[in-house]
Amino acid sequence: xxxxxxxxxxxxxxxxxxxxxxxKTGCFGLCALGPVVLVYPEGVFYSQVTPESMDIILNKHIIxxxxxxxxxxxxxxxxxxxxxxxQDTDFYKKQKRVALRNCGVIDPEKIEEYIAxxxxxxxxxxxxxxxPEDVIDTIKASGLRGRGGGxxxxxxxxxxxxxxxxxxxxxxxxxxxxxxxxxxxxxILEGDPHxxxxxxxxxxxxxxxxxxxxxxxxxxxxxxxxLQIAIDQARRDGFLGKDIFGTGFDYDMEIRLGxxxxxxxxxxxxxxxxxxxxxxxxxxxxxxxVKGLFGKPTVxxxxxxxxxxxxxxxxxxxxxxxxxxxxxxxTKVFAIGGKxxxxxxxxxxxxxxxxxxxxxxxxxxxxxxxxxxxxTGGPSGGCIPASQMDVAIDFDNLVKLGSMxxxxxxxxxxxxxxxxxxxxxxxxxxVDESCGKCTPCRIGTKRLYEILxxxxxxxxxxxxxxTIEELSKQMQTSSLCALGQTASNPVVSTLKHFRDxxxxxxxxxx
Length: 510
Ligand code: SF4
Hints:
The protein is an alpha/beta fold. The protein has helices at 2-13, 51-63, 90-93, 111-116, 121-129, 132-142, 154-162, 184-191, 193-207, 221-236, 267-274, 303-315, 317-321, 354-361, 395-400, 419-433, 439-456, 462-478, 482-486, 489-497, 499-508, and strands at residues 37-39, 44-46, 170-175, 211-217, 241-244, 249-258, 298-302, 324-325, 328-329, 331-338, 344-349, 371-376, 382-385, 409-414. Strands 5-6-4-3-7 form a 5-stranded mixed beta sheet, with helices on both faces. The protein has a 5-stranded mixed beta sheet with strand order 11-10-14-12-13. A two-stranded antiparallel ribbon has the order 1-2. A hairpin with a 2-residue loop joins strand 8 (324-325) and strand 9. The mean pLDDT is 95.
């Protein structure tokens, strides 16, 4: 923000305010290289900008018209010194932006910039040319599956709520992103908040709801602020409220803040929290599509799922389903972190391999170290070892590998990482975050953590490995919600792929 102020000041001092348009956008994806400045019409990309380098860019490039080649992001300069477009760099060239299409492009606080990139066109099309059934059929045909973790088919979920006769229905958005290392939803809300408003209005039209709730973590203040600005603008300009586009369709929405409990990302706990109660999961069935918020049929999807919806309505189901694989249509956003050069946010077609994400887009493991594994799906997911680098990533293949898509956190681990420590890290998290309502999770996570602690402190026994497997099975089959059912996944998958490391702790320390 200081750099943005610096730009504004220098432009004003040089009477350039009318000539240079400064657009303060959301995230470009290359988080490791921020702050970044992209200058048009040349389309050149300055990274890791400081007040000092900003001064040079302003005077030499913006005022003087000469590109500061030595300050450009190194991958945008060829060995011959030629400046390359950003989309030709390794980080961007295999990406396909659907959910993130406006992030880093538009000013998220200006509704006219969203409208200029086809914003609210899908809502107009649906309300004026499509029946609610048409909208559901299009989403079904697209093959869109929930991006929040479970991968449930979105159109099918909407059809369950649509067929309920109950007069009052709700739509809700899960923006309670709590996985360590995940920040996809935050970036979408910060970079393109109107897409969520439009998508939720489409879902409301499809199922017959007139009110929506977005449940956002209070730890995301910029996301909350920009979403509220967007809601106010949409209401002012007639995209929310009564009789939208003169079609007789009424829809409005509000934000509810989450207080940071990981379990509130579980759909029934989230619903309970919106209702004003302690965020604890409820048994399912009944599923929220039948009996959700305040006992009424409710469609709940996460931010990334919703952000695909307007484009599907506008461009058609075939356009979307032509991307990806049988086990996952469209694209997926991943937050890449850990031992990788290009830490950041990427959106890739489903079916891309882990190797392409880590080595090509991510730039590989730094400091000459070897790649050991990638952890996907956060505390509910598992590890994919180096031997599986060529497997196409989609919902089904990750489950076959003993991991899961989760919301899209992808942590790269190098040869120096102890996999037992990694499992312990995630379990420590779930011990803290278990809501305590059911015994298998409340006690099971604690006992599993204690066994890992025993092993890593050199007091483990071979029989501990059998206990881990038995306890994990019990937790998977008897916990009330997904948090407990999946809490042992990081342990089970590391034990499956890296058993030798567990054995090394036990045998070496004897
Ligand atoms: Fe709570 Fe864990 Fe039981 Fe879920 S599985 S209800 S988080 S104790």
